[in-house]
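Reposting from the mailing list since nobody answered there.

I have sequence plus structure tokens for a pair of proteins and want to know whether others read the tokens the same way I do. The first protein:
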Amino acid sequence: MSAADAAVHRASAFDLVRDAAGRRPLLVLGAGLAAAAGTLALTEGPTELAQASINGVVAGNYYALGAVGLTLIFGVLRLVNFAHGEFLTLGAYLMLLFASFDLPLLAAAALAVAATAVFSLGLEVGVWRPVRRRGAGELQLLLFALGLAFFMRNAIAFIATSEDRQTGADVTTSVSVGALRVGRTELIVTSIGIAVIVLVAIALRSSSLGRQARALADSIDLAETTGVNTDKVVLVTWGVSGALAGLAGIVYALPAGAANPNLGFSLILSIFAAVVVGGIGNAYGALAGGLLIGLVQEWATLVIEPSMKVAVGFGMLILVLLLRPQGLFGPARSADR
């Protein structure tokens, strides 16, 4: 076979995979994950793979919580909120603040989630809504979000100092099942995070506000003509987004045992990757994308340095965009779009 024929053959094979991914994305994804898992089980061992999978679910949990809040805002307002990562940091530091009043960590965490939601609502009422009503375009809103992100990060560092703050959580006690181990704190916060993810998915599908939010994501003008109170839905969306971001920061900080002002910045790129992989603006896709990115990154640590796992997550992002540019759960597009 000549070099030209080999190139044509490779191109044809890629086109076949891309077409299959367009028609049956979850089937192709499942097949790819099964092949990767089988290879890792054979080369690295089933126990190591199982432990990495547990770690991937833990990591995917806070990616998914952060991603769904980010994509809800984009879906409803077409706003890329680059300050979303700082909401994660704010949630973790508010938990530390409330815990300093001798509250149990879980109670402090619950108050921090509520306070982050209130902060998010305050920004919408006092900042975002007036800016939108003055006719700010997408570029201005994007730059505003970037400025807000830098302001929040430096304000937290100024108030709380840039040093790591210990959460006081138990990070040494673990639960063992055979050779597999998971930290007790990790198990608790991951279970809470998964429960919240399930509740959010149910609410989006079944509740009246969930249906209205999905209607706004399709067309805000059409939703208004059908009687949807768009201001109310936008407020609820900001509140939910802030609460989920605050919870994501807490779910990350508690098992780590510490928080620092760069917490959100260190996670936001993987959260954006989860949003794009799942399908921008699709909350279900964000949930799946977060878990997928977490799993792939932790599997990668079996064969590469852990410090490079974020690059593997972006490799997954590039692969998904090549095969299905709209993401796993994005609407199908015609060939001319």
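The second protein, same order (residues first, tokens after):
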Amino acid sequence: MSKPHGFIGIFLTLLAICFGVVTGLIVKAIGTEIALVSLLLYRFLFSMPVLIGAAVAARRSQFLQINAKWTLAIRIVFGCAAMACWFTSIRLLPLGQATALLQTSVIFVTILSPFLLGERIGIFRWSAVVTGMLGIILLTNPFGSGFSGNVIFGLMGALAGAGLSIFLRQLGKIDHPFSVAVWYNGVGTIALALLVVGMVVAGGDAKLFALSPDVLHLLLLLGVMAAGLQLSITSAFRFAEAVVISAMRYLQIPMAAFVAFLLFDEVMAPIELIGAAVVIASCVFIAWREFVRARDRQTITSTDTA
């Protein structure tokens, strides 16, 4: 891979990190001013124009073409579950802690890979998994006075995100990621709109659709940031090695914690910071081992065909 392409991949990854941090800040700023279901609805809805524009530019008249329809359906379920859990954890936990918990999905991917993908996990990656699980224990701080049962939402989001990553691997081999993004967000918009309308008709709060101008502006920005995050991280894999992208994405944890400290006076406990550092180290090691295995497979293939 040429250096210019590598720099483009790094730039897109940094862009995705910034989009991710801003997304978390917006969700934290909105707080509980609107219901979670409404927050998710507007996030999906306002991301659609950007995603459709990108898909049309990339695929023209085939921007909606999808081959693996059932895999896409499962991806939509896991994606919505992961997002709902992540947004809930951001509302209830310090942003740095919620972000760190979300990033533990790499550990769960490694645990699930032998069962769902038939991959063989060696002693090095299993050691990293065990270390990462210890880091998760420290990160959740279960024995401290500041422990909150709300960490379960962060862990559930990471587990759903792991399932999402596995199905995205399969989809990425068959369908264009921009088309997948359009279908995912489009179906999410329709499903959530029907849910909100049903709640209102059934006697729910009509304010589920009501928005103040300030909240509306934040939701519009949330949709744009979410679309930018999806497009930039997807495009980054075209220009940089997966191990580089995976390692760099953990910069989002300290960035989110620092910005949340400046804006919301949120402070993570020392043991939680240690746990976050352990999680980052174990996940980066897992990503590095994945790169080594991929390189070894490529070497064997090249030798066999020589």
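Reply #1 (J.P.):
I read it the same way you do. The mean pLDDT is 81.
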